[in-house]
């Protein structure tokens, strides 16, 4: 068994009510990493020579992540708790963000961005998809520091006793997510997106890839206490929400007659064929 590293979730106490916490700092690091990778990814893209469009895109997606993630958590996982304490919706620093809600929020915010700047939605999706795992990894690190989203009880040598989960050793599921949703998915998407692909294919690979990875991870993660298993004594809410992601992602990957676009093509060729 590995000792859980007890990290103070508060970096700095400014006042009794105002604090800087690792959870929020991890989100900030994720957005910064996404900005840097988007800058690298669009350096040869016509019209994206300056950082103005990236700044605007990051602003739109940040709103989608935060609002969608919180609203999604309330709808999918914490509806009953919200009725008991409506102000809990604003306590983001305590955790409680839904990836699937954040994804829906990003879809809406990027649709608004694409409409405003006259880009196809799937084109914007293909731009941002390879950098999303960076935010996933930093967000899961925030979960780990908060001591939340722990795994199921196990006797594997790398099990940990999470401070809020009782005395039994458990799978360190946030660390699994960092490695799979973060590192592995980033490598796959970055390599795949480095060559010309059909518009929507990179986005489709992200949706299907994350869906499969998250579905697998749920077998090691403790189900949410307020929901438990939804069916068959193993199916969780996270797995149910991954199924439409996988199906739609596979459709985008395999759909015929899509235009090929190479985001890394030289400016004079525009990267289209």
Polypeptide structure, described:
54% of the residues lie in helices and 4% in strands. The chain has helices at residues 22-41, 52-76, 79-84, 99-117, 121-128, 132-146, 173-192, 201-217, 237-254, and strands at residues 10-13, 19-21, 197-198, 260-261. Residues 265-273 have low confidence and may be disordered. It has one domain (10-261). The protein is mainly alpha-helical. The longest helix is centred in the first third of the chain and has 25 residues, at 52-76. It is globular and about 55 Å long. It contains nine helices and four strands.
What's the story with the biggest beta sheet?
2 strands, antiparallel
Instruction: Compute the average pLDDT.
Output: 86
Q: Can you tell me the residue ranges where pLDDT is under 50 for at least 5 consecutive residues?
A: 265-273
Main sheet strand line-up: 1-2
Rounded to an integer in angstroms, the radius of gyration calculated over CA atoms is 19 Å
Q: Can you tell me the number of structural domains?
A: 1
Residue share in β-strands: under 5%
Number of strands: 4
One letter per element, helices H and strands E, the order comes to: EEHHHHHHHEHHE
Helix count, per DSSP?
A: 9
Q: What distance lies between the first and last C-alpha atoms, to the nearest angstrom?
A: 55 Å
Structural class by SSE content: mainly alpha
Judging from the principal axes of the Cα atoms, what is the shape? globular
């Amino acid at each position: 068994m590995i000792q859980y590293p007890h990290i103070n979730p508060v970096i700095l106490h400014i006042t009794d009510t105002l604090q800087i916490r690792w959870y929020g700092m991890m989100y900030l690091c994720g957005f910064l990493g996404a900005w840097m990778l988007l800058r690298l990814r669009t350096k040869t893209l016509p019209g994206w020579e300056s950082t103005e469009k990236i700044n605007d895109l990051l602003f739109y997606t940040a709103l989608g992540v935060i609002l969608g993630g919180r609203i999604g958590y309330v709808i999918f996982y914490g509806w009953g708790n919200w009725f008991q304490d409506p102000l809990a919706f604003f306590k983001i620093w305590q955790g409680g963000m839904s990836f699937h809600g954040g994804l829906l929020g990003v879809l809406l915010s990027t649709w608004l961005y694409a409409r405003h700047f006259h880009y196809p939605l799937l084109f914007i999706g293909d731009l941002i998809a390879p950098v999303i795992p960076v935010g996933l990894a930093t967000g899961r690190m925030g979960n780990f520091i908060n001591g939340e989203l722990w795994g199921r009880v196990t006797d594997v040598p790398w099990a940990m006793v999470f401070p809020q989960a009782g005395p039994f050793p458990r799978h360190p599921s946030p660390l699994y997510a960092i490695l799979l949703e973060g590192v592995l998915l980033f490598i796959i998407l970055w390599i795949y997106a480095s060559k010309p692909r059909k518009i929507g294919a990179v986005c489709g690979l992200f949706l299907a890839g994350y869906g499969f990875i998250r579905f697998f991870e749920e077998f090691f993660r403790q189900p949410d206490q307020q929901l438990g298993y939804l069916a068959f004594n193993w199916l969780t809410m996270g797995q149910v929400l991954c199924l439409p992601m996988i199906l739609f992602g596979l459709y985008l990957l395999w759909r015929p007659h899509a235009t090929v676009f190479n985001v890394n093509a030289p400016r004079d060729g525009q990267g289209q064929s």
